[in-house]
Design the sequence.
């Protein structure tokens, strides 16, 4: 039975691949990793989101200035502080011909809220989606949620009938050990239809003639090719076998820039890298500071900030592809305050601050660091280990792959750690709630507060800021939060990463700071 | 003779049991599927519920028995990275690796065996010395470097061959082959060459050494004394006798190519088992990793078992008393 099914799938794939004529423009995209699944609610990973977004649409999208723009919803308004009304786009059809309507919205939001969805945090504030008429829905939230529309840019719409017919009413439950139809198949309203998918090899998509919207280019076919080896991926672009690379390792950037057939596009990513510390304990868990916890002293945290030479890390370790920063929130987010963004390297000051705090001879600590999560994470930690040794802090480095690193952070089992964070809604509130607030697993507050820091004044400032809807006031309130963080040096910031795309000169693609490849903006001569 | 066969099968079973235990330990300790399943966005309560659902809170011995019984039923679980049953994925990827390993070996034999004979017969020729030096280079060149070098010459500079993937494939039954299309064959050339380079050097040196050995032996001297032509002596009498150890080694090498094509497959994004393993390790896809370990161990154990049994067929001394009687008759 299983065998017969497999045979059918494979024969179907071959038939489809064989049937696609080689006319029209084909865009061949290369990336380090494949999309993990075609299920739109299963995996909150940027590569997966980018590929899925070629096939599925959300209610809301972003324009080139990253301002929220209509997609499957043509408009929205606040009726009461907790009730939003969305008008849906008429005459939209899914790839299989079914019409898109309010029932699909109700279904898709409920699906994104299910236990196996990795997007349930994005729709957690929604208590009900009410159908007013086939093209109008009302979203009811538990409390005022000024970011509701921002969050909905991630919630892709599925056809209720298709999902029910194929028994994929919720994202795959890996615990059941059952493969589900939506992993390899898709039916969205997006600009491209999924034609075939071979995980780790290639995913082929063809233009959907019935697409409701516009695309900047007239690309007929898209082939997404994961190529894990860096030199091969670069060579495939250089030889013209690929048209667009969405992740270029730093050491290849200058070579590609020298190639007249290739254009390199860069943008500053929203992700900020910073160091965090154990702040909830009186005694250092991993290290030796004479039975104390030096990180509880503001002056020790400031000393570490002065001791880290972020400019040198950006220049050498990152080969110039990083922007040193003085705060944990990246530019472009609501709540970003440029005046906080100063970085000073002063090892002498670091030494005197340590002495003032009562550690004239320094102390020793273990630094937990991932080696396959952020760009050059291992080398950054090695550099910082050497820099801290200069001021008397003896760091023993504990490197591990991300699959072991994150469970350790979840257990709050680290005395000093490297963390990278970006705000999915272009707004500083998400990080404030999930990283800065006191840990509360019931409400989801402080779920990434790996330091176990708790300050009621900071919590209160965040609480008052989060339901403010007036944009200017909101900006000011969130700025105040990050000023408190900087004054207390809760985290020591290092830099923002720089994203690099490379493409054949005939291709033009926009690099978004959240690393979401927007296929509708890609053009090809 | 029977006891020899029983002992060999017993050893094979014992090895498989130990490998299964190691695979289980990999599964239990090396990676945590929590990140893959829940994402980085999860609460303490969800993680506890998942641990209970997966049976991770059971004692280790109980978990091993469950694991063993699943494996014996051919159930390797689900890949956390791909969301698909492990055995389905393994079966899909197997043809790519087998075709790559086999074509690499065919190239290696086609080049290595004649070269070995040639260098044995012309021991002091300039060409022989050149070939031996070249083979030294082939043995020392890392396959990663070799692969990237080929890509830059044949894909980037000349534009003749594709730098990645398997090209167009055709499906026969469940076997997806790249051998029947021009595109697929072009895609095969560089990965197969990369695999072949090391094997060419090894086969050539092995054939040469065996040939030199055989040429010194008595039956060759007698053959010459009988006035047979050089051609007949070298190819009918000498080469044949060198083939037994050469074929044994090639058989064993084929197993290791299948197991260690990891680097070559990753350089060329060849969608076979090696690439699958590498990506599973990076994603801590533990169910896939342990299934791969068991599969590769099974390949090795099977090949070794066949070789042992072949020796039994070839070497009368292993056949016990009855065999010896026949041997002396």
Sequence:
């Amino acid at each position: 039975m299983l065998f017969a099914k497999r045979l059918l799938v494979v024969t179907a794939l071959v038939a489809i691949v064989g049937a696609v004529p080689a006319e029209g423009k084909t865009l061949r995209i290369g990336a380090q990793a494949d999309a993990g699944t075609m299920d739109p609610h299963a995996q909150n990973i940027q590569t997966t989101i980018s590929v899925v977004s070629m096939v599925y649409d959300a209610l809301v999208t972003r324009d080139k200035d990253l301002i929220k723009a209509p997609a499957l919803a043509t408009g929205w308004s606040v009726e009461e502080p907790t009730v939003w009304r969305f008008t849906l786009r008429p005459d939209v059809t899914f790839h299989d011909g079914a019409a898109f309507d309010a029932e699909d919205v109700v279904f898709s939001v409920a699906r994104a809220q299910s236990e196996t969805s990795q997007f349930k945090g994005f729709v957690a504030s929604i208590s009900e989606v009410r159908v007013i008429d086939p093209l109008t829905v009302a979203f009811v939230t538990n409390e005022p949620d000024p970011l509701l529309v921002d969050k909905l840019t991630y919630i892709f719409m599925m056809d209720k009938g298709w999902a029910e017919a194929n028994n994929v009413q919720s994202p795959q439950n890996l615990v059941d050990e059952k493969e589900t139809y939506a992993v390899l198949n898709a039916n969205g309203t997006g600009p491209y239809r999924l034609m075939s998918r071979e995980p780790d090899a290639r995913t082929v998509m063809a233009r959907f003639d019935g697409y409701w919207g516009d695309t900047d280019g007239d690309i007929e076919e898209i082939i997404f090719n994961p190529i894990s080896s860096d030199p091969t991926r670069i060579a495939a672009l250089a030889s013209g076998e690929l048209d667009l690379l969405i992740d270029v390792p730093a050491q290849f950037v200058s070579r590609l820039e020298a190639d007249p057939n290739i254009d390199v596009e860069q943008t500053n990513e929203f992700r900020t890298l910073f160091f965090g510390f154990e702040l909830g304990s009186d005694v250092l868990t991993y290290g030796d500071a004479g039975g104390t916890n030096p990180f509880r002293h503001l002056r020790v945290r400031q000393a570490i900030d002065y001791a880290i030479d972020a400019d040198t890390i950006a220049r050498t370790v990152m080969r110039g592809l990083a922007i040193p920063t003085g705060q944990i929130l990246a530019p472009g987010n609501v709540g970003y305050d440029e005046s906080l963004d100063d970085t000073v390297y002063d090892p002498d000051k670091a030494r005197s601050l340590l002495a003032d705090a009562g550690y004239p001879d320094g102390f020793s600590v273990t630094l937990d660091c991932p080696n396959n999560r952020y760009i050059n994470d291992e080398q950054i930690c090695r550099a910082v280990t050497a820099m801290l040794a200069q001021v008397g802090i003896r760091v023993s480095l504990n490197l591990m792959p991300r699959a072991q690193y994150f469970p350790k952070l979840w257990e709050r089992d680290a005395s000093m750690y490297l963390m990278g964070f970006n705000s999915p809604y272009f707004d500083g509130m998400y990080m404030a709630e999930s990283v800065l607030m006191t840990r509360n697993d019931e409400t989801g507050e402080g779920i990434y507060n790996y330091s176990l820091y708790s300050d009621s004044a900071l919590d209160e400032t965040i609480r008052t800021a989060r339901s403010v809807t007036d944009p200017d006031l909101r900006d000011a309130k969130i700025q105040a939060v990050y000023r408190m963080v900087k004054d207390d040096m809760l985290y020591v910031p290092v830099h923002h990463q720089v994203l690099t795309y490379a493409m054949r000169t005939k291709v033009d693609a926009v690099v978004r700071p959240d690393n979401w490849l927007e296929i509708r903006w890609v053009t090809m001569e | 003779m029977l006891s020899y066969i029983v002992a060999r099968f017993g050893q094979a079973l014992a090895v498989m049991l130990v490998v299964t235990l190691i695979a289980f330990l990999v599964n239990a300790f090396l990676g945590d599927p929590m990140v893959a399943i829940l994402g980085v966005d999860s609460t303490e309560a969800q993680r506890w519920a998942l641990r209970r659902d997966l049976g991770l809170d059971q004692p280790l011995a109980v978990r091993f028995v469950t694991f063993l019984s699943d494996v014996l039923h051919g159930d390797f679980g689900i890949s956390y990275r791909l969301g698909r049953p492990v055995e389905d994925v393994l079966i899909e990827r197997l043809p790519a690796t087998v075709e790559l390993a086999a074509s690499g070996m065919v190239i290696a034999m086609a080049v290595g065996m004649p070269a070995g004979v040639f260098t044995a017969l012309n021991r002091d020729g300039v060409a022989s010395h050149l070939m031996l030096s070249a083979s030294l280079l082939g043995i020392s060149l890392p396959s990663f470097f070799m692969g990237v070098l080929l890509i830059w010459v044949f894909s980037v500079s000349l534009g003749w061959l594709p730098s990645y993937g398997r090209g167009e494939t055709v499906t026969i039954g469940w076997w997806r082959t790249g051998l029947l299309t021009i595109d697929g064959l072009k895609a095969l050339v560089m990965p197969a060459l990369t695999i072949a380079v090391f094997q060419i050097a090894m086969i050539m040196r092995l054939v040469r050494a065996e040939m030199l050995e055989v040429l010194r032996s008595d039956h060759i001297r007698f053959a010459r004394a009988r006035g047979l032509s050089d051609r007949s002596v070298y190819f009918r009498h000498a080469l044949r006798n060198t083939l037994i150890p050469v074929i044994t080694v090639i058989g064993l090498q084929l197993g290791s190519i299948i197991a260690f094509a990891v680097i070559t497959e990753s350089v060329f994004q060849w969608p076979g088992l090696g690439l699958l393993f590498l990506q599973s390790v990076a994603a801590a896809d533990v169910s896939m990793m342990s299934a791969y370990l068991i599969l590769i161990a099974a390949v090795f154990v099977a090949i070794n078992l066949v070789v042992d049994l072949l020796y039994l067929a070839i070497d009368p001394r292993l056949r016990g008393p009855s065999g010896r009687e026949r041997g002396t008759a």
About this structure: The two ends of chain A are 47 Å apart (CA to CA). The first strand of chain A starts at residue 25 and ends at 31. The mean pLDDT of chain A is 90. Residues 179 and 466 of chain A are 40 Å apart (CA to CA).
